[in-house]
Design goal:
This protein is a component of the acetyl coenzyme A carboxylase complex; first, biotin carboxylase catalyzes the carboxylation of the carrier protein and then the transcarboxylase transfers the carboxyl group to form malonyl-CoA. This is Biotin carboxyl carrier protein of acetyl-CoA carboxylase. Pathway: Lipid metabolism; fatty acid biosynthesis. One of its GO terms (molecular function) is acetyl-CoA carboxylase activity. This protein is α+β, with helices and mostly antiparallel strands. The chain folds into two domains: 39 residues, no CATH class; 80 residues, RNA polymerase II/Efflux pump adaptor protein, barrel-sandwich hybrid domain (OB fold (Dihydrolipoamide Acetyltransferase, E2P)). The chain is built from three helices and ten strands, in the order H-E-E-H-H-E-E-E-E-E-E-E-E. The strands form three sheets. It has a four-stranded antiparallel β-sheet, with no helix packed on it. The longest helix is centred in the first third of the chain and has 16 residues. The chain is elongated. The relative contact order is 0.14.
Length: 164
């Protein structure tokens, strides 16, 4: 690839960043070919905060007491501190993709709550760009909680399971 300075590249990258923001996307990748040995590969991404969504669901699902004592007010803060991503045994997604709990449709899932796993055992699969990526257990332990559902879309860093 020849290192040619294209004045339009800066404007092109800024337009991609604006497209990312305007369409509420998390990642965009483009390859622009200028000639046989001259191209531009651009990947624009941004980190999305997931915590406000989790707080919104926990606050919406909790019933509002009508005659509860004032001491009950800290309960939503305690629920927010139980974020699975903060758990020391959380295994997070190393990539953006779709989660599959079994090797193929109709097969038994790799794990379930209470399953004992050894370091390196496959916990689940994250499909990214038609590639099936086996997510290994980082250490031996017991599956305490499965946070994602089969077929769910995940972002980089999304907690998948709790392994203790």
């Amino acid at each position: 690839m020849t290192k040619t300075n294209h004045d339009a590249d800066v404007a092109f990258i800024q337009a991609l960043a604006e497209l990312l923001r305007a369409n509420d996307l998390t990642e965009l990748q483009v390859k622009r070919d200028y000639g046989e040995d001259d191209s531009l590969n651009v990947r624009v991404s941004r980190k999305m905060e997931q915590q406000p969504v989790a707080q919104m669901f926990s606050a919406a699902s909790a019933p509002t007491p009508t005659n509860a004592p004032a001491a009950a007010a800290p309960a939503p803060a305690a629920a927010a501190s139980e974020d699975p991503a903060d758990h020391p045994g959380a295994v997070s997604s190393p990539m953006v993709g779709t989660v599959y709990m079994q090797a193929e449709p109709g097969a038994a899932p790799f794990i379930s709550v209470g399953t004992q796993v050894a370091e390196g055992d496959t916990l689940l699969i994250v499909e990214a760009m038609k590639t099936m990526n086996h997510i290994p257990a980082p250490r031996a332990g017991t599956i305490k909680r499965i946070i994602v559902e089969d077929g769910a879309a995940v972002e980089y860093g999304t907690p998948l399971v709790i392994l203790e």
